[in-house]
UniProtKB/TrEMBL annotation:
Keyword Cell membrane: yes
Gene3D superfamilies referenced in this protein's UniProt entry, alphabetically: 1.10.287.70, Helix hairpin bin, Jelly Rolls
Sample GO molecular function, one term: voltage-gated potassium channel activity
Domain of life: Eukaryota
GO cellular component: axon; dendrite; HCN channel complex
Organism: Seriola dumerili
Residue ranges occupied by any Cyclic nucleotide-binding domain in the UniProt entry: 381-486
Residues annotated as transmembrane: 45-63, 124-142, 162-179, 200-224, 279-306
Protein name: Potassium/sodium hyperpolarization-activated cyclic nucleotide-gated channel 2-like
GO biological process: regulation of membrane depolarization; sodium ion transmembrane transport
Keywords, comma-separated and alphabetical: Cell membrane, Ion channel, Ion transport, Membrane, Potassium, Potassium channel, Potassium transport, Transmembrane, Transmembrane helix, Transport
Record-linked SUPFAM superfamilies: cAMP-binding domain-like, Voltage-gated potassium channels
Compartments (UniProt record): Cell membrane
Topology relative to the membrane: Multi-pass membrane protein
Amino acid sequence: GWRALLLPQLNRQSLYVYGSEVAVEKECIRQLESGVFVIHPFSLMSYYIMCMMAITFLNLIGIPMEIAFLDGNSGLAWEGFNVFSDTLFLIDVALNFRMGIITEDGEEAILDIKRIRVSYLRTWFIPDVIAAFPIGYILLFAQDLQYHNDDNPSKTNKMMRILMFVRILSLIRLARVSRLVRFFNEVEKVSNANLEVVRLFFRILSLFMMIFLLCHWNGCIQYFVPMLEEFPTDCWVRKENLMNATVIVKYSWGVFRALSQMIALSYGSMDAPTYVEMWIVMVSMVSGCLMYTVLVANATAMIANVDPAAKEYKSKMSRLEHYMTFMKLPPELQLRINNYYQARYGGKWFDEKDVIDTVSSALKEQILMVMCSRLLRKVPIFQSRDENFINAVLPKLDYEVFQEGDVIVRQHVPGDRMFFIDHGQVLMETDSYERELCDGDFFGTCVLTKGKHLATVKALTDCQCFSLSCKDFRDVLEGFPDVKKD
């Protein structure tokens, strides 16, 4: 029944954390056996966080707008939304005492009530309580009193001052930005290699949301401070003739001044700021510097993590350059070594052996089958052979790269390997003929019977080959008596 809403669901995140559907089912059993009301981080109930994010963002936009520009005339709809959001945040504080916690390593969820309570009290409880302070109820009650005291001017003025104080006090609800921070932190915890795009998207989204909120708040402060001074004659609002302008026009001018100060273009107008406005300008300029710092730092971090393989390649090449300089290798040799690395790795550093050794045997066979099977099938001794025999040969292949001009094998020299060309061209030379070989061709099979190479083979271009040791090939044949006999 309703308890199913509290249990972990089968989704990409839960399968990544627990590994399989069976493990997710065991997690459901573990939660049911605990016999307590706990919301699992991967349950359907946790999706209400998305609703909380939308409401939080609307609060962070609407509250400064209401205080600075609406002058208490926000309307019944906004007052109702304030009461609703205050109620929801109070409920959220209570639910967080029952919300399971994702551990730092992301391997399990904490479902113990005592540990959840202690963790929440030590981390987000105080910011959440401050953000959930029910200002909406106080404003609703104060407005009701003002309505009943309209016939008494002294009481009405007193209530107006109380309302203004309460509205300024409602700025503490901007602490709800902590809910956004917690949401993005939780997304970061459950992200993994398969969710790298999602993680990057949320990082960029959070960055732009914070920049937008900073500009928005600065724009509201630009108008709010002169309003507190009751718009003196030298304030920017009177200079721009905005006293009777619409809210949109006032807000647009406020944001324009804030952005002008944050990017250090001007004060937002031709005139110098007043004494009070000077402090606003300094706050905007400092916040703009912080915005630049955060933006550049995050952009640099994201760019650095976009292509880790290329980054690792550059690091390897840097160490190689230092090594060659230290060993005082000739410039021609250094150039050939650099060209080899470029041909071998193509600007990306991967350890093929490490990758092959860490996957399962079934995946290893499939990888090698895709890479090398077509090469083996072109060799007469491997044609029409059993699939099991081919699969036994594939793991014995070694990847090699030869540069243009390299002599791969020499005529009449004892050999121990045969070669299969993946990409590139080579020239096979004997005393009587020459022949060019390219993608898909092979050479060196004669070493199986003759024990030596019958031709000299030189690389005409950068050549990528797979080689098979004669010893490894004979070891494979021992397991296939019929093929060995043939």
